[in-house]
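queue> holo job accepted (FE2/S2 (inorganic) cluster)
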Amino acid sequence: MKPSPFEYHRPSTVEEAVDLLADLSDAELMAGNQSLSIIMSNRLATPDHIIDINGLDELQYIDSDGDAVEIGALSRHCDLETSEILREAFPILPEAAEQIAGPVVRNRGTIGGSIGEADPAGNYPCVAVALDGEVEIASSDGRRTIGAEEYFIAYMLTDLEEDELITDIRFSRDAFPISRTGMAFLGQKRAAQTWPTLSVASSIRVDDPTADAPTVEDVRIGLANAADVPIRIEAIEDELEGEPFTEAALDTVGEMAYENVEPQDEMHADERYKRELAREYTKRALNTANSRANT
Amino acid sequence: MYISMSINNSDANRDRPTQEVSLAVNDEEVTADIEPRLKLSDFLRNDVDLNSVRIGCEHGVCGACTISVDGDLVKSCMMYAVQTDGSEIETVEGLSDDGSLDPVQEAFHEEHALQCGFCTSGFIMSTRALLQDNPDPSREEITEQLSSNICRCTGYQNIYEAVETAAEKMEND
Amino acid sequence: MSGSKASPVDTEIDEETNEETFTGKGLDRVEDHRILTGRAEYIHDITPEDCLEMGLLRTTHAHAEIVEVDAVAAEEHPDCDLVLTGEDIAEHYNPMPCGLPGISEWSLAKDRVHFVGEPVALVVASDRYVVEDLIDLIDVEYDTLEAVSDPLVARTDDTVLHEELGTNVPDDDEFVFGDVSDAFDEADNVIENQYSWGRISGVPLETAGVVASYDAETDTFDIDCNIQLHTLVDDTVYETLGYDADDVALNVPPDVGGSFGTKIALHRYCALAAMASHQLDGQPVKYVEDRIENLQGGDMHSSDREYLVRIAYDDDGTIRGLDINFVDDYGAYPRYPVNQVLKPLSVLTNAYDVDAVRYSYELVLTNKTSQTAYRGFGVDPHLYALESVVDEAAYDLSMDPYDFRWGNLIQPEQMPYKLPSKNIYDSGDFPEAQARIKELVEEERTEGGLLDPEIVEQRRENGKYRGVSYTVHIEPGVSGADWTDRQRSDRDALDDRDRADVDELPEHLRCEVGDDGTVTVYLATDSSGQGHQTIAKQLLADELGILPSEIEVEYLDSVEAPTEYGSAASRMAVMLSGAAQGLGETLADNLELLAADHWNVETSAVAYQDGAVEMIDGNDRLTRSELAEIDANFGDRLAQASYNYQHPATDVAAFDEAFVRKYPVYPTAAFAANAPIVEVDIETGEVEILKLYSLRDCGTQLNPTIVEGQAQGGLAQGIGAALLEEFPYDESGQPQAVTLFDYLLPSTKNIPEMQIEHSETPSPFTETGAKGTGEGGMIDGPASIATAINRALEPMDVVVDRIPATPNRIRDYVRDE
Ligand SMILES: Cc1cc2nc3c(=O)[nH]c(=O)nc-3n(C[C@H](O)[C@H](O)[C@H](O)COP(=O)(O)OP(=O)(O)OC[C@H]3O[C@@H](n4cnc5c(N)ncnc54)[C@H](O)[C@@H]3O)c2cc1C
Ligand code: FES
Ligand code: FES
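queue> job finished
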């Protein structure tokens, strides 16, 4: 399990990094190396050049203003996990972060790496898809922004070009006024340090939490490892929006989750079982989000 | 105190490109000419002779290779040594230079928190980091922190005891 | 001594009050200090000057003909020191000895590969990185063949793995004890069920490692490695090399990072590194297996069984007969632990008194990596299948499984109890254990407890089903050696074998007194975390009346040591204590002789006392260091001793029947009563163990701290086996779990609080009353957890028929209920 030889570059600005990407052929960005190192050790990846972006201090920030939260690509899982700003404004991100591996992996792994890797089981990708995250991308040609749903194309294939670097993940706060919104990230993880079998990101906004039966205004539901990309199920959202939240509606959308996911068989989770998990965790995540919205 | 140690293994590298790194390992200055692909775990074990860094999986799960880099715990099998140029590294060897035991090591011994011992360095590093941040952790906090490490022998019960005993010892110090 | 009555023990020890004896106390482990300070030397740490590294090219095919190995590019590379292929080694060396006759297994595949991960070529270079570069330069051309990964399909022999064998079932047997047909004909009820035990293994944290050096001058090999049982299985290395036992020294470092049986079969690596050093004129060659190699093709998977079990029982719950049949998937080659299918005979009926039992097995070969031993050695699946069918019988009678079990337990007055399969349980009160464990759990039924009926009801309404079961399990200890080659013997001849034909292996121990009076004791076994050095010190300190700190412990290599069994099969507590006692007496006698000689008096005039020899009249005294000096002048004859402790069952005539017929002989029956409290989420199938109660008895405890450690660690492995761990293969023979992301080892998040109590029922058969207990929780954990899940899902009439009980499988049981 030793990687093949590579040349090592350590830029200190985004500009230098994208220039290197433009100049070098067969180059790979390295952030936390918590995924890349494994495929390099197996020699499933044998890049000639490694561009270590850990020196890009400009990408290590978590900001929030009235409109949006912005997370620099080099923010570590532990940064998200402990960010007061996010706990306040976008609590699903710390919740998703703290469920990744154990604390030592979280000290290194980054949100940019997770979005860059685009594993369909990844925690952040399904949050980004469900909550309309935007991925900001830089290259030597300039910068662009793309919505998460368009970004994830197929199994571990994204819209990111070879010469591009993710700089930032941005979530508009518009749809999620925190006083009326509840969010939840839940899933099945059979061991502390393995990938989840399936997880669900959810959010519910109500019109008036103090009302007896508040009307559900906005629902988000995203699933990880339920298809070859992280998916959002809008039919479920439509089903719940515009009515008060009920147990019966939950059962209905559970069934919709069962029907709408497109999972693959894997070692200890066949397709049918994953549909069942999708049903159950969709219900639980929505239920938790709803009760959080109402407190 | 800085002792200087210079490693040149370019002989083994023949014509593959190397890079020079300079870092402090357990307060000792180390300068080495290394291939960029050299994992930090292999560098520390083979070039700096720090055998407490153990290799159990090389894919980030077992935690036997856990060390501290610039104050943060990392799995050294998932870093390349070139990345640590200018860093400060601490391993178990750095905890006790005169052969005496620090409170965490003592507690692991007293509570029989090791059998084969292959996981032990990683657990000691994880426990120290936990107690530095949180001198009186709850069982749940211990569970979370130590979930980065696998022990195949002890069943963890005595490891919990050891962490708690170490916390007491450190409080009384 | 209180006979065989269990007495509770206090494991807390007070260092102040135990000045007289060290055995039986939780003496701090002497192994710890060097480990804690990072100074222990494991095999991965050993790198002699000029050492080269070896790596292996492994096939990705499950079954294929090798058409051509093109290694030219690698060989011509300036960094390459050596490449060897199967063809090359076949020219110079031998195939590896197999567990059954009729098959040749080469250490590098020759002609054909039989499992994913099988080594095809070896490469040596300056370091592992370069080695892997060179491996990438080798091209192997294959003709793929149909692979067979399902043992039930393999036994039909449509695709045969080894043509020279002509079948995929190289061994099978059937044992009928008592009147089985009558029992099944006459019983009120008979049921039949199938159970699967998934392929699991020990997966120690340290992988295999070898450093081999060939000495051209003496034409001998020195091999440092972490093989287990190096004094027993050294033949697998020297025979492969084609050398005599005396020419190949296997040396195991004092610290080994866990083995659990799995490292018994590392001979492929030892032999290959030795061959490489041999070809390189003695330059040392090191090999360290990486984790993926280990999981996918490391010859280290263990039991993988499909059971078909019948049970005959009367309406009142009396078990009349058992009929246990299974197929065990051994992977590509039947390696040494073929007798893993036989060991369950030593606990055939577990804690139940049943006379009529049929037991049959088929050992099947498939395109998977080979089996090795794992803690429990085949007993774990047996207890699981047996306890599961017992649950089904109880359900069938609408009887509480506790009562059903209770009514069938072997009674204390039946001890020692001879099983139908002729092994003997030495001592124990099983009903008391079952009652006690239930009593311990009763507390949980009170208000606020885990089993508070109100809480249980509430949780159930939310789809969370709680349950607990009470099971008693026997852990057979201190294996004999003679029976272990049963499958390689002429079985028809066993019926009229003589007791004199039985060839047991003793435990060897020797020591010498140094100039400073230090007694150095040499173990002929290897250790992997069990604390043997501590125990040897404790035992010998007591025997010699000196302090543990006055004793050093060292290890013998395979040439210095006689062939002997070593540490496996829960042997060491008993064998070491017997050996230490004999050794202590022998050394005292020797020192008395030496002193008497020196003083020129009769030996009756001198006495060994507390580490020195005195004249009985009190006029003179010689310390150990003085004696050592005197002896040095007389040619080193008497300030040393050596002792071979005979296996304890050899003195007990009741075992003769088992011995002569080569039935497994395990003269100690440690036992445990377990009560895991589990909660099953029926919507997701997830199982959580809320708490685990266990009452354990391994006779006299030599070191309660170590006993407790073994219990906790074993139970954790039992939990892994029950819920998490498995090496599945797909139909084409591709392994599915080749990293620790997929082979799930329990972490702090999977292990519940354990409440463990110990009692001590001394063994009447052993010197100290100790029973072997190295395997415990791994043997009884899975069965007890499976039955607890059954209990939790009782409202749905579910019986867990597959281990591990993954969430997916649990859903398969409950979804249609
Ligand atoms: C034991 C273990 C358990 C884990 N469990 C989980 C889990 O449960 N859930 C989960 O989501 N993840 C899990 N992970 C993965 C972890 O979250 C990784 O940290 C993450 O997926 C990758 O982040 P990284 O910063 O380490 O990226 P790297 O490994 O450095 O890179 C991954 C890929 O992303 C690319 N990349 C990195 N940064 C950028 C960027 N800024 N722009 C463009 N491309 C970039 C790289 O080129 C590479 O291809 C686990 C990892 C381990 C070791
Ligand atoms: S060796 Fe680094 S985590 Fe296992
Ligand atoms: S003590 Fe052996 S792995 Fe922890």
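queue> Chain A has three domains: 7-52, 57-172, 178-293.
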